[in-house]
Amino acid sequence: MSFWHENWSNMGVLADVFAEVEPPAPISLAEAAEANFSIPGMSDAMIAQMRIWYDSRLKSDSDERLWAPSPDGRFTVKSAFSLLSNQVPACPLARHYWAKFILKKMAILLWRFLNNAIPVDVRIQDCTISLASRCLCCVHRNIESMEHLFLRGEIAVFLWDRLSPLFGIHRTNYSDLRKFILAWFNVAHRKSQMGKMATLFPRAIMWEIWSERNRRRHDESPSSMAVILYKVLQWVHNINPLLRTSNHSPGMLHHILRVCKLSPTPVRRKPPLVLRWSRPPPGFCILNTDGASSSQGAAGGGVIRDD
Ligand SMILES: [Zn+2]
């Protein structure tokens, strides 16, 4: 246990508590205790304080490791999350790739891509594992890098060039896959129907490229380009009901769905119903009531009429 960097005393991390003291060479708590806390750079008052804290910990009823970021020394996921989120800058694409309507496996694949964590051959070679690379997406084999597999390989070119022009994006304008994906995410506001569609398509395309690559890698019979395209459109079709279209949906969205032969799910709206008060039969009254309530209280009322 580090003397300077762990909360052994339950008074906080000493490197923070005594920020004015330049921590010397790393020292463990056991070594510090062995030296009776006579550590170079510490004043006599600090040394005396250390001895008191150490003794109080020895006399403590519990023998537990203490978690510095929580005031009571107990570990919580919340405190760990806030500790890490303060240290790591937020990814500007996070809102896109964690969109609720996207399947988790697709979201995670994109997260892995953005973090360079998809095990294509070149990535494995980066880990100093000797490997002869040969992609499985092209007739004339190439080196399998992330950019090749997902942007320039034959499957990728086939899928992107058929689907991205529908969104006004052209693959040939991009040499960087990251910027290409960003262009998709910038087609429209992420919460709009077009924005959701432009978030969904690249995810389904990347998922099917990766699935097909793995199928071929594991010696399963390769799917034809038409079948891979069909699978991409099936994903869009299956998730599309969540993105309901209406007469007010952009014409571009209808066009995309029509070209991809995807049936839009129309929004059913109830026809408006006109309600009118009608006179009761002679000798009868009508009582109309209404009420409302909140956490603060409730109220109600009524009107009795016979004409
Ligand atoms: Zn290839």
UniProtKB/TrEMBL annotation:
Residues 288-307 are annotated as: Disordered. GO terms for molecular function: RNA-directed DNA polymerase activity. Residues 75-160 form the Reverse transcriptase zinc-binding domain. Keywords: Nucleotidyltransferase, RNA-directed DNA polymerase, Transferase. Pfam families: zf-RVT. Transmembrane segments: none annotated. Residues 298-307 have a biased composition (Gly residues). It comes from the Eukaryota. This is Reverse transcriptase zinc-binding domain. The lineage of its organism: Eukaryota, Viridiplantae, Streptophyta, Embryophyta, Tracheophyta.
